[in-house]
Design goal:
The complex is a heterodimer. By secondary structure, chain A is α/β, with parallel strands linked by helices. Chain A contains 14 helices and nine strands. By secondary structure, chain B is mainly α. Classes of the chains: A alpha/beta, B mainly alpha. Chains A and B meet through helix 5, helix 7, helix 8, strand 7 and helix 13 of A and helix 1, helix 2 and helix 3 of B. Chain B: Keywords: Membrane, Transmembrane, Transmembrane helix.
């Protein structure tokens, strides 16, 4: 073709949506019209390559990509003014070397892929949400706007088959959410009283309609769910013991007149899957006093710790091993601690190992550096001396602040 | 009703109630004393989880296994799921806003 050099590649993240078929057609037509020379259909992996139990998910994704490739070929054959060989159709799985938690992660993987294949455009299926579960995260479009990629949505409308397809896609999840909500409602109410039954069915329906696509990111599996529940029942007492132990330690720190706290923000790269496993782990970390999950990003959990003792416990990773036990079994729970894997970082304080991530309010006027410099008590010294001097001013009752080891 | 309970059970109920009170007190103290939003989120959710947990355990013991006691146990589970979620939401919002956690030497906020 004459204008071949101008034409670039386009990356299209796909999942099984009602509008996927039309999106494929739209892309092939655009390519035939001279806009693109190659179309990359990519799927974000929801697993890590070496996870147990991922064969079925991989197979499902392979089937999806195969289907997309077949559709694209058929559409290319339908277009008259283009040779099939002129447009290249590529399918790929991206991100199976780590867990992707949120829009940030997806966009990073997508940008890396586009860079690798000289693609400058991303076309989104209008029904596309990464892995089907992430209405709680910032939308992908928003996160994409921070990259150099040109983004547009495929101008396609939902086919009339949509209702049927949707039900097929979410029927089991809907039923599971409905049953669980109803069971909880009736356990609190009276299952034999007609009013509780009727209002329970109505409430459970509302919950299932609004939340089944959010709270379950995969169909619950009859073979795996019961064993996970059993392992969870083992985990609960262990977690309760951890909570009790940490609570006593933290209570002592809070009631201590000197209040020897040393809070820092930390990073720990965890090896658990996205969705329910990472939620369980993050919630368990937050439940354990002294540690508080602030963000999940890039496969990392950002955890705020109140005292060094809690931070050490976090870096020893016992909750991570428990979570892996609950979701993947005893074999998977045997892994080195995050500290041994070198998957940890401290963002603040004298032991800091890494730059503070993210933004600081007011362009950096609040952060510790400037506070120290502005403080009249702090001499023009760096490091521990300035630390000690500045800490005397605000902490009236703290002449003997206990520092971290 | 109290007469119907055995002395051991009654003692346990009292102990649990007192523990619940204690941890709620710690939680309140923490919210007042700790220096910033992150550390307050720790104590507001955590000590309170145990405070409410022990109190509800006392309720469950007093009410017996059928009816109210069973509901109390369910409520404990409910709190254990929702409480950290709320704490995380607060901490995450603060982080997104660019609030840097307090470290030794900063002023209280």
């Amino acid at each position: 073709m004459v204008d071949a050099p101008k034409r670039g590649s386009v990356v299209v993240p796909v999942e099984s949506t009602p509008t996927l078929r039309a999106t494929v057609t739209h892309l092939v037509e655009s390519a035939a019209g001279g806009e693109f020379s190659s179309i990359h259909f990519v799927v974000f992996a929801t697993w890590r390559r070496d996870d147990p139990d991922t064969a079925d998910r991989e197979a499902a994704v392979d089937r999806l990509l195969e289907r997309v490739a077949t559709w694209a070929e058929a559409d290319l054959a339908d277009v008259d003014d283009v040779e099939v060989g002129d447009v290249e159709v590529v399918t790929a799985i991206v991100g199976d070397d780590e867990y992707l938690f949120g829009a940030d992660d997806y966009v990073r993987e997508l940008a890396a892929y586009a860079d690798e294949h000289d693609a400058e455009t991303v076309v989104l299926d209008p029904e596309y949400t990464p892995v089907g579960n992430t209405t709680l995260l910032q939308p992908l479009e928003f996160a994409l706007s921070s990259t150099d990629l040109a983004v547009r949505e495929a101008p396609v409308t939902r086919p009339t088959r949509r209702e049927r397809l949707r039900k097929e896609a979410t029927g089991i999840r809907f039923a599971a959410t409905f049953a669980l909500s109803l069971a909880f409602y009736l356990a609190l109410g009276d299952p034999l009283y007609w009013f509780d039954l009727a209002s329970g069915v109505a409430s459970a329906a509302v919950v299932a309609i609004t939340l089944s696509r959010i709270s379950l990111d995969a169909d619950p599996s009859l073979s795996r769910t019961p064993i996970r529940l059993l392992r969870g029942a083992v985990y609960v007492p262990a977690l309760l013991y951890e909570i009790l132990k940490s609570n006593v330690v933290v209570a002592r720190v809070i009631l201590d007149p000197r209040m020897p706290i040393d809070p820092t923000l930390n990073r720990v790269r965890v090896i658990v899957g996205s969705g329910l496993p990472i939620t369980t782990l993050a919630n368990s970390i937050t439940l354990t006093p002294g540690t508080l999950t602030v963000r999940a990003r890039d496969g990392n959990l950002y955890v705020h710790s109140l005292i060094p003792w809690a931070r050490d416990g976090l870096f020893d990773g016992s909750l991570e091993r428990w979570t892996r036990f609950v979701f993947y079994g005893r074999e998977a729970a045997r892994l080195p601690t995050p500290r041994e894997r070198d998957d940890v970082g401290i963002f603040q304080g004298p032991d800091a190992t890494e730059e503070y991530p993210g933004t600081r309010a007011d362009g950096g006027s609040i952060p510790e550096e400037s506070t120290r410099e502005d403080s009249p008590d702090a001499p023009a010294a760096d490091g521990p001396v300035a630390d000690a001097a500045a800490s005397n001013a605000p902490a009236a009752d703290g002449d003997e602040e206990v520092t971290a080891e | 009703m109290i007469d119907a309970l055995g002395p051991a059970r009654l003692a346990l109920i009292v102990v649990f109630s007192l523990l619940g009170l204690f941890f709620t007190f710690v939680s309140m103290t923490g919210v007042i004393r700790l220096p910033d939003v992150y550390s307050r989120a720790h104590t507001a959710s955590q000590a309170d989880t145990l405070g409410a947990g022990f109190t509800l355990a006392a309720v469950a013991l007093a009410a017996g296994w059928e009816g109210t006691g069973f509901k109390a146990v369910l409520l404990v589970f409910f709190i254990f799921v929702t409480n950290p979620t709320a704490a995380h939401a607060i901490a995450r919002a603060a982080f997104e806003e660019g609030t840097v956690p307090w470290t030794e030497g900063d002023e209280r906020r």
